[in-house]
Structures are given as structure tokens and as C-alpha cells.
Write a structure and sequence with these properties.
By secondary structure, this protein is of the alpha+beta class. It contains 3 helices and 5 strands; from the N terminus they run H-E-E-E-E-E-H-H. The chain has a 5-stranded antiparallel sheet, covered by helices on one side. Strand 3 and strand 4 form a beta hairpin.
């Protein structure tokens, strides 16, 4: 369940242009039984900053010695990293998620695989989330000019 983001007094989360994607992801992850312990959204307030979403699962919920981080970038899509106290090991793109706006169900399947096996799924998901164009337009509209 996503709550009011800390550090954004007066800014309602539903006004963030990528909030619809974040809430759809949250619902799919909860439905798949892998709700993240950490959800962070980057606002990309400057023209050179991109919108990002970071989802995290700590070591207590993951196979292996550390946790998992899934990172979404509005231009490059999904990547993952292994994380623990004092370290973050970027592993590169989640190659099964072949679209920048992968469907929330495909992201939830990737998260489930990473949390329970430590590896991303091999099966490719080529479908794009149906609301992707609306979020792209909202991101473009909120960019400082």
C-alpha cells in the first residue's frame, strides 16, 4: 500500500506524473504476494533529471545473503541490483521486461522470481502497459521548460 511520500510536504502523491504506474505496480506486487518494503519515486524536477521508481525488498524476504532492488527509469526501463548493508551491486537490465513500461503483472513476476530465486525470469514479456502513453504525456507536461 502506497502512502504519502515523506519529504514532499504539500505535494499530493497522485499529482506525480508517474504515480499511476507506481500504483498499478504496487497492486500487482501485492496481488503476487511480493509487496516491496521500499517504494521511492524520483520527481525529476530539473530538465536533466529523469523520473524513476525504486522498489526494494530487504534480505529477510529474499533468497541469498542480501536484498533486491528493482529500478525503473522513464527512458531505459527496468534494472535490478543486489543490496545489503553498505553495498549495492548493480546487475543490469531485467532482460525479460522488454518494454520501458512493462505491464505491472510482468514486473510482479520478475520481482517474484528475483525475491524467491535471486534471478530474473528468462521468459520475455513484450507487452506494454496500456496506460503508458498517458503517463508519458503527463511526464512531458510536467517538465520544466
Amino acid at each position: 500500500m502506497l502512502l504519502q511520500p515523506p519529504g514532499l510536504p504539500g505535494l499530493l502523491p497522485h499529482t506525480l506524473p508517474h504515480w499511476p504506474y507506481a500504483t498499478a505496480l504496487d497492486q500487482a506486487l501485492v496481488g503476487r504476494g511480493v509487496p516491496p518494503g521500499i517504494v521511492r519515486l524520483n520527481l525529476g524536477a530539473r530538465p536533466d533529471e529523469r523520473m524513476r521508481i525504486r522498489l526494494g525488498w530487504d534480505a529477510s524476504r529474499c533468497v541469498g545473503p542480501g536484498g533486491i532492488r528493482l529500478l525503473w527509469d522513464e527512458e531505459t526501463g527496468w534494472a535490478y541490483a543486489y543490496v545489503g548493508p553498505g553495498y549495492c551491486i548493480p546487475r543490469g537490465p531485467v532482460t525479460s521486461l522488454q518494454r520501458v513500461y512493462a505491464t505491472p503483472e510482468a514486473v510482479a513476476a520478475a520481482a517474484h522470481s528475483l525475491v524467491h530465486t535471486g534471478r530474473p525470469p528468462a521468459e520475455p514479456h513484450e507487452e506494454e502497459w496500456p496506460q503508458a502513453d498517458a503517463v508519458r504525456a503527463a511526464i512531458d507536461a510536467c517538465r520544466p521548460r
